[in-house]
Design goal:
It comes from Scheffersomyces stipitis (strain ATCC 58785 / CBS 6054 / NBRC 10063 / NRRL Y-11545). Keywords: 2Fe-2S, 4Fe-4S, Cytoplasm, Iron, Iron-sulfur, Metal-binding, Mitochondrion. Belongs to the anamorsin family. InterPro entries: Anamorsin (IPR007785), CIAPIN1 (IPR046408), Dre2_N (IPR031838). 40% of the residues lie in helices and 11% in strands. It is of the alpha/beta class and 359 residues long. The N and C termini lie far apart (112 Å). The relative contact order is 0.04.
């Protein structure tokens, strides 16, 4: 009985008949099968543990067309859960071919939405037979395959007869026309290649160390340049020099030596400093005004009966706050009841007709 796993995306709840339709298709195509279903988020977080090499087929159901990407960690988990030659199909992404191949899957030739876990290739062992037990002809005849060549060591007599100063080599007993010089040349070539590889790898490492020693941090150069005074680094041309050897304090009208830019920079720094000081002073004044206002609110002004008593300005010896009501409008306050009346003498009876109308 086949084991089938359904991985459901959380958006499956938008279509209540989608999962049932998939299960019906599985019953029609496979028949009797053991079907399990899990939410893919729970599998990714590790809340649901899946057994390795268990499922013959895993189907991913995702109705969200705009987001079908699968993390590489989930691909690896699905790969480990499938059996050999198992299939992972369904609503799979089509833009993650590299991740699919890196995980170990093979994309089906007939369907891009089907990934197959390949069966591992078994290694074939080739037995090596000892010298002297069987001849090459007997080995090839008995096994029906091409026999491996057998080698034997050259004797000292043959070396003396050949008067060769080369080291003792190996000869192939299965090949009659073996060229010993070719074998020695191949050995020397391999040794030479290995020596070249070692030399160049050592030289590359030394070059890397030298490059690291010669690297200068650019930030250090910037710090050093900032520590110097701008005026000390200024080069004044001959045309701007004063005859007595002194330097100009201000830049010329058409300055080209950089003194004008330095002055503008210093002026900008001074202006920013003044703005910051004025801003702090304004802020402190605002805070002080707020404190005074709060203090006045906590201590309201109260008038006594003496302050609220009415004063008769017609009686001699009694005056108002200004004491000039009898002199005329030019000497009267804004709220004086005698505004608009001619001047009068202290003690003179004054009638105010406008008050009667108001009453």
């Amino acid at each position: 009985m086949a084991n089938i796993l359904l991985l459901l995306h959380p958006t499956v709840v938008t279509d209540q008949h989608l999962v049932e339709n998939v299960k019906a298709d599985i019953r029609k195509s496979v028949g009797d099968a053991h079907v399990e279903q899990h939410i893919i988020d729970r599998v990714t977080r590790g809340e649901v543990e899946l057994t390795r090499n268990t499922y013959d087929k895993i189907i991913y159901i995702n109705p969200n067309v705009h987001n079908r990407s699968i993390p590489a960690s989930l691909m690896k988990l699905v790969y480990e859960t499938l059996i050999d030659e198992g299939e992972f199909s369904g609503d799979l992404p089509t833009d993650q071919a590299l991740d699919v191949l890196m995980t170990g899957f093979i994309v089906s030739d007939t369907n891009d939405q089907c990934w197959i876990k390949p069966k591992p290739i078994e290694s074939v062992s080739i037995p090596l037979r000892r010298k002297g037990k069987k001849t090459d002809a007997s080995v090839s005849a008995s096994s029906g395959t091409t026999a491996l060549p057998l080698f034997k060591k050259l004797s000292s007599n043959s070396n003396n007869n050949n008067n060769s100063s080369s080291p003792i080599g190996l000869t192939d007993s299965s090949a009659a026309n073996t060229d010993e010089e070719t074998d020695e040349a191949n050995v020397m070539k391999r040794k030479l290649d290995a020596a070249k590889l070692t030399y160049f790898s050592d030289s590359d490492s030394e070059n890397e160390e030298d490059e690291n020693d010669d690297i200068i941090n650019e930030d250090d150069l910037i710090k050093d340049s900032n520590q110097l005074d701008l005026r000390s680094r200024l080069i004044i041309p001959k045309s701007c020099e004063i005859p007595n050897g002194k330097k100009r304090r201000k830049a010329c009208k058409d300055c080209t030596c950089g003194l004008k830019e330095i002055e503008e920079q210093e002026e900008a720094q001074q202006r920013s400093l003044q703005d910051s000081i004025l801003g702090k002073m304004a802020q402190s004044a605002t805070l002080e005004a707020i404190k005074i206002e709060e203090r006045l609110k906590r201590q309201p002004v109260k008038f006594k009966d003496e302050d609220l008593a009415e004063i008769d300005f017609t009686v001699e010896g009694k005056t108002g706050g200004c004491g000039s009501c009898a002199l005329g409008d030019a000497f009267r306050c804004d709220g004086c009841p005698y505004l608009g009346m001619p001047p009068f003498k202290p003690g003179e009876i004054v009638s105010i007709d406008s008050l009667g109308e108001d009453l």
